[in-house]
Amino acid sequence: EVQLVESGGGLIQPGGSLRLSCGTSEFIVSNNFMSWVRQAPGKGLEWVSVIYSSGSTYYADSVKGRFTISRDNSKNTVYLQMNGLRAEDTAMYYCATKYGVPPGHYGMDVWGQGTTVTVSS
Amino acid sequence: EIVLTQSPGTLSLSLGERATLSCRASQSISSSHLAWYQQKPGQAPRLLIYATSSRATGIPDRFSGSGSGTDFTLTISRLEPEDFAVYYCQLFGTFFFTFGPGSKVDMK
Questions:
Q1: Are residues A44 and B96, on separate chains, in Cβ contact within 8 Å?
Q2: Residue A4 CB neighbours (<10 A)
Q3: For chain B, which has fewer Cβ within 10 Å, the N-terminal or C-terminal residue?
């Protein structure tokens, strides 16, 4: 089963920074979009950010100006740099992508196992 | 920005019953941009349906999707024990990927 692997989560104080990583050895991450999705404890899914194969990046309003998504093609890895962290950023963070879904159609069929970010003093 | 709403919030059904879940968009969307996911506790979401009505790889045919414009539906024809979970719809816009709030299917 094709899968993504996230890392970098942890406990961080409000105002602090973390960098999450997401990679795989099974396909080239730059061939399609890569997205971050988060889920606060007991809550629903919240889309966070996307980086397209072109390099274009977009963000949810809740993280715009604080989070930056990027990609290192040489490491086949996507990152989420999170600055100015707040208590409300506490969540499980998943990376996800489209892999087997045909061109022109949309759905994220490959996900990581998630990495937990806890923002607390 | 387009907002997705889902109903009902919770659906209580028995094994073998039919589940019908609704996803409504605040404005008309392309059917190729609407997907459905299943999530169980402690697990990552799993893609069920993409492009409104196409089943993802390995998804049983008791799951089906339909709809157009602003109204979309996920139907589970006969509930199996493993189908009790939370279901989310998702819209793929160019500048945003938004999720609905989810619908929980639990056992009556």
A1: no
A2: 24
A3: C
